[in-house]
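Notebook entry, structure prediction.
Reason for the run: the old model in the group folder had no record of what sequence produced it. Starting over properly, with the input documented here first.
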Amino acid sequence: MARVHSERHRSQHIGWLRAAVLGANDGAISTASLVVGVAAAQASRQGILIAGLAGVAAGAMAMAAGEYVSVSSQADTEKADLGREAQELADDVDGERKELAGIYAARGLTPDLAAEVARQLMAHDALGAHARDELGMTESQSARPVQAAAASAVTFITGAVIPLVLAAVVPREHTILAVVLATLCILAILGTLAAKVGGAPMWVGSLRVTFWGALAMGVTAGVGALFHVAA
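New structure, fully documented this time:
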């Protein structure tokens, strides 16, 4: 019995991975920064938690809406391109077959073989062949607005959980330190995992995420320290 060769490519994960990592990073950074900034303003624990919860609700909705709109625009473009290609196939199938054969010939096939490959692929799925080889569209990388929006919202909330929990349970005088240290650890882990799945050096992914997270929390802490309120 012949062995089935199965391969897994990292590009298959790009769509959902980008949205998930972006959502978790943004959830951790924005919520921790908000907590640190409000805490630096000497607000009460209740004030910190209210600000944090409001930030999570607003951030999750903003992430979901942004991803949905962005990916929907991509989906609209793909749909329009497919519609145009379908019309061209209906108007001039022979010309489209020659166009596809030319693509294969440019990739290294002999003209005769390229013409035969184009003929067979178009006999099986003409629009699919042109979508893949002329337009560069594949099923694994096609736009999925709802999936991207849901992933962004859920992962944003997931990233925001630990800063909020720490703000609720850690003694008020230790809130800033606990939230900053925990968030930096979370960001380092997220950066490492994203780099590993994407095939990039893990220390690079970890360092760049933690750097920007530390910068964001530092800036908001400085802003909060300028506006003291009653504890």
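Summary: The two ends are 74 Å apart (CA to CA).
The old model has been moved to the deprecated folder.
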